[in-house]
Amino acid sequence: MSVKLAELSSKILPPAMLGMLGGGQLGRFFVIAAHEMGYRVTVLDPDLNSPAGKIADVHLCAAYDDREALESMAQSCVAITTEFENVPAETLEFFEQTRIVRPAAAAVATAQHRVKEKNFIRDAGLPVAPFHVIESAADFNSVDAAIYPAILKVARFGYDGKGQARVSGREEAEAAFEQFGGETCVLEKMLALDLEVSVVLARDVHGHVATFPVAENSHLNGILDISIAPARCSDALREKATALAIELAQKLEYVGVLGVEFFVCGDQILVNEIAPRPHNSGHYTLDGCVTNQFEQQVRVLTGHVLGDARLHSPSVMVNILGNIWHDGEPDWAAAFAVPALKLHLYGKHEPRAGRKMGHFTVVDVNADNAYGLAMQAREALGIGE
C-alpha cells in the first residue's frame, strides 16, 4: 500500500521510531538530535562498530539490500532517511511503498551518480564546469583538447578525493580511465578557483526552505579541512550561491537536508556537487546556529516546521583526521585550552590516515578571533602536518 498524501503532510510525534540508513558520523549526529527531541532511532549499517549504531535504540547490522533487515525496519519505523548517498536507490524505493522516505529515492539516485548529477544540473539551467561523460576509451576521441587540464572522476562511490585523478592531457586521462577499471567517469575541466563555498539547506514537503549561512571551504588532499561561516566574500556572492542552491532543490523536488558545493572563478559561480544529506561543511551549525543541520533533518522527516537557521556566532570548523594519531592519542589538552572550542569526536574504533575521526568548531563574536583561535588549535593538534 502506498503512503497517502495525508500521511505525507502529517506530523510524526515522539516517541516514534525513525529509521536511518547508514551508521557513520552523520547518522550519529542524527541519532543525537532525534534522541534530544524524544524520538527513537533504528540504524541499518553493516559495520558492527558503526558510530551511529553504537548509540541507536536498535542497530540492524546487515547489508543495505538485506531483505529481512529491510522488512524489519519497515515494520518498526514510521519514517526513514539516509546519511550518505551511496545507499542503493532500490532500498529507498522499497521503503517508499509503505513508509515516509525523505529524501526520495529519485533524488538520491541523481546525486549518487556523477553523470546523472552533472546532466541534471546542466539541464536545469544551472551553471556547471565543462565536462564530458566517458563510458569507454573511445569517448576520448570526441573530447575537446581545451578541457585539459582536467579531473577524471568515477561516476559512483567517489568521495573525499577517492576515485579521482588529475590529468594534463588525453594520454594521462586514458591511463587513469584504465586504472579505474574502465568504469563510467566524468571528465571535468580543472578551473582556476578563487574560492570554494557551500550552502546547506532544508526543504520540507510543502516546499518551504530554510538556508544556513554560506560556508567558505578549503581542502587538503581532496578532503575538507576548514569551513568558515559566514564565508569571507561579498554579500552578492553569498546571495547568488544561496539562490542557486534553492533553485536546485526546487527543480530536484527535494525534501530533506541538502548540501550544495560551489566553485567561484572570478565573477562566475558554478555548481560542483550536491549531497542529499547533511554536509561536512555544515558541521559548524552544531555550535554556531540556532538550529543545527541534524535537528533540521529530524524536523523535515517528521513533518514539523523548519527550525531557525540563523547564525548566532561566527564559526570556524576544522576536520580531525586519523593522521594525527601517529604517536598515540592526540594532545586533546591543547584543544580544551581554547575556551571557545567545541570538540566533537565520532567514536570510530580505528584511526587511519584520511579517515574523519572528528572535528572541532571555534565560535566567537568576532570572526577574525574565531579563525585565529581555530588555527592555533589546529597547529597544536598537528593537523595538516
From TrEMBL:
MF annotations from Gene Ontology: 5-(carboxyamino)imidazole ribonucleotide synthase activity; ATP binding; metal ion binding; phosphoribosylaminoimidazole carboxylase activity
Record bears the keyword Lipid metabolism: no
Pathway linked to the protein: Purine metabolism; IMP biosynthesis via de novo pathway; 5-amino-1-(5-phospho-D-ribosyl)imidazole-4-carboxylate from 5-amino-1-(5-phospho-D-ribosyl)imidazole (N5-CAIR route): step 1/2
Residues annotated as binding ATP: 114, 153, 158-164, 188-191, 196, 219, 272-273
GO terms for cellular component: cytosol
Known EC number: 6.3.4.18
Domain of life, source organism: Bacteria
Record domain ATP-grasp: where: 118-302
GO terms for biological process, alphabetical: 'de novo' IMP biosynthetic process
Keyword Magnesium in annotation: no
Listed Gene3D superfamilies: 3.40.50.20, ATP-grasp fold, A domain, ATP-grasp fold, B domain
Keywords, in A-Z order: ATP-binding, Ligase, Lyase, Nucleotide-binding, Purine biosynthesis
Reaction(s) catalysed (UniProt annotation): 5-amino-1-(5-phospho-beta-D-ribosyl)imidazole + hydrogencarbonate + ATP = 5-carboxyamino-1-(5-phospho-D-ribosyl)imidazole + ADP + phosphate + 2 H(+)
Subunit structure: Homodimer.
Function: Catalyzes the ATP-dependent conversion of 5-aminoimidazole ribonucleotide (AIR) and HCO(3)(-) to N5-carboxyaminoimidazole ribonucleotide (N5-CAIR).
Listed HAMAP family: PurK
Family: Belongs to the PurK/PurT family.
Protein name in UniProt: N5-carboxyaminoimidazole ribonucleotide synthase
Gene behind the chain: purK
